[in-house]
Amino acid sequence: MTPPPPPPFVRDMPWTSVKRAAEAGAFALVPVGSTEAHGPHLPLGTDVFIAEAVAKQAADELAKRGQEALIFPTCAYALAEFARPWAGTVSVGADAARAYLAEVLAAIARTPFRRVGVINHHLEPAHFRVVRDAAKLAKEKVPGADVRVVDHRHPPFSELLGEEFTRGGSHAGWYETSLVMATAPHLVRHHVREKLAPIPVDLPALIKEGKKDFLECGGPDAYLGDPASASVKDGVKLLNLLAHHACDALLG
User: Fold this and answer.
1) Going edge to edge, which strands form the sheet with 27-32?
2) Could you report the per-residue pLDDT of 49-90, keeping only the tens digit for each?
3) How far apart are CA 107 and CA 101, in angstroms?
4) Mean pLDDT, residues 98-108
5) Domain spans of the chain, in order of start
6) Does residue 175 contact residue 164 with C-beta atoms inside 8 Å?
7) How many Cα atoms are found within 13 Å in the side-chain-facing hemisphere of 67?
8) 3-state SS of the chain: helix, strand, coil percent to 5?
């Protein structure tokens, strides 16, 4: 049996191969995550692992649709104020995060990738605004570049991701725990996860009310939702949905 081709990470490739792909019209995919607390059962790199997994699967799906895509190294630090009270969380100020990401995206567009897709999985609203603003700035820096931010937070697509995602906790709960179980299972502390009680809150509503961190939202251990109900099967389904949506957004 022929082994599958390796994931198209530019970190593993010589510049000559990257140049050929860029000049042939390949997409550059840029995963964006955070380094922040995700409960006592998930790693601080949860958003990073999910963003990279979605990018990998999206690249595979794009290839099936006749479109090459290469994956650049992940931006792993972000505005992460909601998890700031917990050890290990690294929250970068909005201005610095915006300027840095804009420079990264613009530099990639000059390499010369004219189509850049941002695969972000850190969903804090203020961070998502930073990502969108950074993409806009990158396009201003490199006229003619097509820099798109994939956004899976809105209906009708968001409804496919489950009740917890749209109107629940969705931070280290069923949604994210299932995705990590499907993408980095060795990093899930199941003996902890299985004992965690559900914290059924409407996180979007709490954010609109002005809550500033997960502690104020009722999550003293930096998780919300129901991680004990997560499963690999659900994670695989969610990953497939996210990857297909990313491809549709990039090609649309």
Assistant:
1) 69-71, 27-32, 115-120, 146-150
2) 999 999 999 999 999 999 999 999 999 999 999 999 999 999
3) 10
4) 98
5) 10-247
6) yes
7) 18
8) 50, 10, 40
Cis peptide before 6 (omega within 30 of 0): no
Sign of the CA dihedral running 28, 60, 24, 13: positive
Question: What Cα–Cα distance (Å) separates residue 34 from each residue in 82, 141, 170, 234, 252?
Answer: 12, 25, 15, 23, 27
- Homologous superfamily of 10-247: Creatininase (3.40.50.10310)
Q: Determine whether 4 is exposed, middle or buried from the number of CB atoms within 10 Å of its CB (0-12, 13-18, 19+).
A: exposed
Q: Which helix (DSSP H) or strand (DSSP E) does residue 150 occupy?
A: strand 146-150
Is the pTM of the predicted complex or chain greater than 0.85?
A: yes
Alpha-carbon 234 to chain mean position: 17
pLDDT tens digits, one per residue of 160-196: 999 999 988 789 999 999 999 999 999 999 999 999 9
Q: Please give the Cα distance from 13 to 142 (Å, whole number).
A: 24
Picking from 12, 148, 149, the residue whose alpha carbon sits closest to that of residue 70 is 12
Count Cα neighbours of 235 within 13 Å in the Cβ-side half-sphere: 22
Cα separation, 207 vs 171, whole angstroms: 13
- Which is nearest to 56 in space by CA: 114, 4, 103? 4
pLDDT at 95: 98
